[in-house]
Amino acid sequence: MDKNIRIDEIVTRLNAASDAYYGGQEEQMTNYEWDALFDELTALEKATGYVRPDSPTQVTSHSGNEMDGEGEKEAHEYPALSLAKTKNIFVVEELQDGAGERDIWLSWKLDGSTLVATYDGGALTRVLTRGNGTVGTNITYMASAIRGIPAKISDKGHLVVRGEATISYADFEAINDTLEDADDRYANPRNLAAGTLALDKTNLDKVTFNAFTLVHTDEVIRSWGARMDYLEKLGFITVEREHTDAKNLPDAIARWTKKVDTGEMGIPVDGLVITYDDTDYA
User: Fold this and answer.
1) Of 191, 172, 164, which Cα lies nearest the Cα of 266?
2) CB burial readout 32-59, b (16+ within 10 A) else e
3) Closest CA to 74 of 145, 144, 131
4) Three-state secondary structure along 7-55?
5) How far apart are CA 133 and CA 155, in angstroms?
6) Which residue numbers in the chain have pLDDT < 70?
7) Which of 211, 42, 85, 67 is nearest to 137 (CA)?
8) Cβ distance 116 to 65 under 8 Å?
9) pTM for this structure?
10) How buried is 138 (Cβ within 10 angstroms: 0-12 exposed, 13-18 middle, 19+ buried)?
11) pLDDT of 88
């Protein structure tokens, strides 16, 4: 297929998916599918020099998991890549082989809107949406209403933490029940979380920030598990996690998968994240 034609096809698909998602309709693709197409588009544009003005690579509001909203656009200190990029279809045996003797952590890829919070001298200084991963929207003025973003922490250095802003299924259903017009109702909790952060601030108190990565701290903490423990000590709500090893990994994955299949999860999830505990996580 001609590369320019493929670019046209991808731009059309991504923009249609964005319009559906931002318009409160059923989503047309997963985060993983979005990121894969976005990466393919970026590579094709670089190779051909053909960049459409309506390309998601050129339109901030359509190149990430946020809606257009109030606030200044600002560059991320560290690129905010989607965790969906780690969500490949895997074979458990391959994960076991890759782990070797290393410790393994299971955690959730939560289905909400990614936010990045920055602290200096123990005080919250900035909260950005993920945006396109390079540039996000500054929503610091909303932070006091969002559960799980402390205004002050005991770490007096420079700290950057990434987390997922979610709304529980119970709150999602309760909020939708108050909307008499079916056209005003949200399609899913992720859409409601994104809409609340960008447009309708009414339900900000129902949004929870779930920290999933300590991107930077002046402290020397290499272990992902220890970094998450540190965030908990600082007062953050952290993503659920379980420590395991290669031998017990299959049973752990089966148990976690069952939680989703049986409807035990109170907040929406988009898959599992497998972390080998000897890696830098920024």
Assistant:
1) 172
2) bebbebbeebbebbeeeeebbeebbbeb
3) 131
4) HHHHHHHHHHHHHHHHCCCCCCCCHHHHHHHHHHHHHHHHHHCCCCCCC
5) 26
6) 21-27, 30-32, 59-70, 81-93, 98, 199-200, 278-282
7) 67
8) no
9) 0.74
10) middle
11) 40
Is 109 labeled as catalytic in the residue annotation? yes
Task: Please name the amino acid found at residue 17.
Answer: A
Where does 68-223 have alpha helices with state H?
A: 92-99, 169-177, 189-198
Q: Would you state the structure tokens that stand for residue 268, as one six-digit string?
A: 């929406």
Copy the structure tokens of residue 280.
């830098």
Among candidate residues 109, 156, 201, 206, the one labeled active-site is: 109
Q: In this structure, what token pair is assigned to residue 240?
A: 């659920």
What percent of the chain clears pLDDT 90, i.e. is strictly above it? 43
- Ranges of beta strands (E only) in the chain are 73-75, 104-110, 113-120, 123-129, 135-137, 158-166, 208-216, 241-244, 269-276
Pair of tokens at residue 6:
């493929």
267 within 8 A of 168, measured Cβ to Cβ: yes
Question: 127: exposed, middle or buried (C-beta count within 10 Å: 0-12, 13-18, 19+)?
Answer: buried
Cα–Cα distance list, 176 to 18, 23, 24, 171 (Å):
21, 15, 12, 8
Kind and range of the H or E run holding 258: helix 249-261
Pairing of strands 241-244, 73-75: unpaired
